[in-house]
């Protein structure tokens, strides 16, 4: 055994040679002129289909509240539709940029995100219903730096993993730099506070490290640390402890903190098997808070029923499966890790949102991708899909070169 506890020298030498060959391949790919084909059509079409359904559901879920606030039931829908169209343009633009561009921008994006997270508790804006400062006001819209932080974590972790190829089994290279970034990010998020974003970023960081080659026993230690931190947060931070209390018994505070969960369960239960019909839901008439945002899936269940909700989750599943397929076929390690991170982020957010609206998890601010209202969040989500499509453009090239090599 060597000092890092790896396999005997023969296996270690073979592993080193394997890493060296992969590193040489990636360097040649980066230095060569990048030939790019068409992006992955199934992934693109699934994204457009889910987005289209999401925009229609925003119209149905938001009509009553928009009419009450603005006197125009279409106002929220029109705004979301505009951001959706702009997001498609952004997705197509980002799909044309080479993967090397994202690798070069990973560290600068992380630094800029860190500065924004540091500033938002002091100069950002909050909402009375959540009691937290999470948004920057741009005048025409607001945005959460935490959404950009998720992308920055994925790109920077993929870059660092590629730099430390062959050393990810050590604590110095496989744990320490990632732990520093995660701890710093989570501390800044707690200043807002933003518990849900902290959970998602920790989960994404862990997935990226595992995919990059960090040894499994480090995760066992990390789970222990997170468990202790969770115990401290739940017992000493009223913001988190109150949510746990209401999660266990929403009817303990039915007119205040438990209201949202109770109304969500009413909406889901009243939908039955086939739903009340698109646009026929009742809970959106000012009964359910955030009906067009974090709790839009409750309206989906009410209006489209169990069958409609399961079909939408099936579409999300197909998109996630296709994303992981692209990750397995990416031309290099960086591209594979980036797609893995973005696809895992999508999967985590879908799972957590559905878990929250069904009261499987405590109530917290987790949006449903492509469905929940929010212009800048939708732009960022479609931008992430554009990055995946960008990396997918280089997959046909690799296949063609492999076929040419076999013929020779």
Straight-line N-to-C gap: 41 Å
Total DSSP E strands:
3
For the largest beta-sheet, the strand count, sense and barrel status come to: 3 strands, antiparallel
Count of the domains = 1
Percent of residues in β-strands: under 5%
What value does the average pLDDT take? 85
Radius of gyration: 23 Å
Q: Output the helix-strand order.
A: HHHHEEEHHHHHHHHHHH
Specify the helix fraction band. over 70%
Please state the overall shape, judged from the principal axes of the Cα atoms: globular
User: Structural class, please?
Assistant: mainly alpha
Q: What's the total helix number?
A: 15
**How are the strands of the biggest sheet laid out side by side?**
1-2-3
Stretches where pLDDT falls below 50 for ≥5 residues? 1-12, 402-408
3D structure, described in words:
With 408 residues, the chain is mainly alpha-helical. The protein has one domain (38-252, 323-407). It contains 15 helices and three strands. The protein has helices spanning 9-31, 41-70, 75-94, 99-123, 145-163, 171-174, 176-190, 195-212, 216-236, 238-248, 259-271, 296-328, 333-357, 375-392, 395-407; strands spanning 125-127, 132-137, 142-143. A three-stranded antiparallel beta sheet has the order 1-2-3. Strand 2 (132-137) and strand 3 form a beta hairpin. Helix 13 runs antiparallel to helix 14 (375-392). The radius of gyration is 23 Å and the shape is globular. The protein starts with 8 loop residues before the first helix and ends with a helix. 41% of the residues are buried. Mean pLDDT is 85; it is low at 1-12 and 402-408.
């Amino acid at each position: 055994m060597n000092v890092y506890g790896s396999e005997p020298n023969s296996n270690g030498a073979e592993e080193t040679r394997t890493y060296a060959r992969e590193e040489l391949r990636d360097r040649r790919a980066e230095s060569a002129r990048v030939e790019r084909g068409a992006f992955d059509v199934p992934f693109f079409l699934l994204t457009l289909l889910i987005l289209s359904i999401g925009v229609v559901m925003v119209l149905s879920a938001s009509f009553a509240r928009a009419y009450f606030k603005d006197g125009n039931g279409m106002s929220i829908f029109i705004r979301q539709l505009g951001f959706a169209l702009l997001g498609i343009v952004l997705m197509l633009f980002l799909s044309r940029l080479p993967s090397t561009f994202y690798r070069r921008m990973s560290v600068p994006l992380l630094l800029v995100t860190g500065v924004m997270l540091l500033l938002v508790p002091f100069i950002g804006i909050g909402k009375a219903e959540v009691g937290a400062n999470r948004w920057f006001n741009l005048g025409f819209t607001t945005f959460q730096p935490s959404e950009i932080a998720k992308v920055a974590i994925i790109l920077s972790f993929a870059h660092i993993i590629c730099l430390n190829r062959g050393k990810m089994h050590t604590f110095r290279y496989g744990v320490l730099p990632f732990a520093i970034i995660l701890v710093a990010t989570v501390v800044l998020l707690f200043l807002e506070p933003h518990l849900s974003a902290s959970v998602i970023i920790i989960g994404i960081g862990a997935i990226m490290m595992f995919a990059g080659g960090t040894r499994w026993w480090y995760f066992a230690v990390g789970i222990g640390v997170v468990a202790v931190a969770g115990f401290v947060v739940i017992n000493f931070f009223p913001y988190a402890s109150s949510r746990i209390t209401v999660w266990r018994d929403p009817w303990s505070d039915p007119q205040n903190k438990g209201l949202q969960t109770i109304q969500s369960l009413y909406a889901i239960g009243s939908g039955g098997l086939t739903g009340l019909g698109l646009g026929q839901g009742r809970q959106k008439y000012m009964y359910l808070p955030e009906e067009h945002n974090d709790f839009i899936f409750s309206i989906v269940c009410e209006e489209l029923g169990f069958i409609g909700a399961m079909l939408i989750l099936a579409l999300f599943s197909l998109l996630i499966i296709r994303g992981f397929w692209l990750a397995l076929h990416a031309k290099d390690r960086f591209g594979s890790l980036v797609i893995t991170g973005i696809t895992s982020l999508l999967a985590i957010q879908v799972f957590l949102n559905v878990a929250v609206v069904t009261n499987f998890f405590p109530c917290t601010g987790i949006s449903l991708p492509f469905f929940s209202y929010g212009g800048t969040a939708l732009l960022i989500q479609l931008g992430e899909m554009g990055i995946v499509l960008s990396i997918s453009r280089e997959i046909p090239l690799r296949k063609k070169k492999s076929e040419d090599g076999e013929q020779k």
